[in-house]
Amino acid sequence: MTAMITPSTARALFAIGDEPGAKRVVDLLNESFDEGQAAIAAFERADGRWDVSIHFADPPDQASIRNLVGLASSEAVAESIAFDVVDAKDWVAESLQGLVPVRAGRFIVHGAHDRASVPLNKLGIEIEAALAFGTGHHGTTRGCLLLLDQVLRSRKPKRVLDLGSGTGVLAIAAAKALKRRVLASDIDPMAALVARDNARLNGVGNLVESICATGFSAAAFGERAPFDLVLANILANPLRQMATAMAAHLAPSAQVILSGLLPHQAMSVIVAYRARGLVLLRHQQIEGWSSLLMQRAG
Q1: Which of 42-46, 94-98, 126-130 has the lowest mean pLDDT?
Q2: What is the pTM of this model?
Q3: Buried b vs exposed e over 220-258: b needs ≥16 C-beta within 10 Å?
Q4: pLDDT digits over 68-113, tens only?
Q5: What would you measure as the largest C-alpha separation in the chain, in angstroms?
Q6: How crowded is the C-beta side of 17, counted as CA atoms within 13 Å?
Q7: I need a surface site. Which of 121, 235, 257, 272 has the fewest CB within 10 A?
């Protein structure tokens, strides 16, 4: 994959006293940002408090962020917010340094240094540092790969979409397993380039079409639909917002794998997709993140 110089990412960090408090803050923040503006996560600490982090697509208005957090918690929590800048290339590279290959069913996500250690009966996905989430070490990506492995035990979907593809792990996994074309899309043009390069690195460059698109706006979605399988490892708020558009692009009995959800957000996403005619088949949690397998009724 071609080396790429990546921009820095603005970040906000703060701690809050308990899970209900963290949930209130995260829910308000998710509702306050449009798709692609921010990535929000909350994790429980050993002492029972919760750490909340926000990564911004653009430098934030710090006073506005403090006001939002203050509305859902307290002035003291709002004042405690620490803003900094994280170099995207450095944190992604660091996430891969020294990590052993990650196994998820038939799939193994690994770096170049572990290429030779992939067993012959497994499908290796080689991913190196780049500007995007989705190295395979994150709980949401691993959850999606496990659900994908389960789906492919009984189905061979012909039309597959990886929505919010990041580094392209899921699109590459599907293309390798099915030996069929996969459409991969991301709102970040840099991520779309990274996914394309990673597909070439993994020998499926001719099968993975990587595009930059917001939601289902690009013509490629209509041309390739209806999809038999959609992989969408994004965030709760955009998943809810895209429920109607996604349902309109699904084939009868199509399955969708949805992730990027904190456990308390899963039910609202399930409800949104149930309202569009999908039923829940499986809900799993890995490393504090929820992943859903749903199917279009009929």
Answers
A1: 94-98
A2: 0.69
A3: ebeebbebbbbbbbbbbbbbbbbbeebbebbeeebbbbb
A4: 999 999 999 999 999 998 765 544 455 555 556 778 899 988 877 7
A5: 56
A6: 7
A7: 121
Order of strands, sheet of 160-163, starting from the edge strand that comes earlier in the sequence: 208-212, 182-186, 160-163, 227-233, 250-261, 289-296, 278-286
Task: Give the DSSP per-residue string, 83-118.
Answer: EEEEEHHHHHHHHHTTPPPEEETTEEEE-GGGGGGS
Q: What is the pLDDT of residue 5?
A: 38
Residue 206, helix vs strand vs coil: coil
Q: CA dist 129 to 18, 134, 136, 165, 178, Å?
A: 34, 10, 12, 15, 26
Other Cβ atoms closer than 10 A to 112 = 12
Query: What domains, with CATH codes, occur in the chain?
Result: 8-87 (3.30.70.120), 138-296 (3.40.50.150)
Mean pLDDT of 128-155: 76
What mean pLDDT do residues 162-174 have? 94
C-alpha angle 102-208-288 in degrees, rounded to nearest 5: 35
Q: How far apart are CA 144 and CA 160, in angstroms?
A: 14
Q: Is the dihedral of CA 188, 288, 254, 154 positive or negative?
A: positive
Rounded to 10°, the helix 169-178/189-201 angle is 40
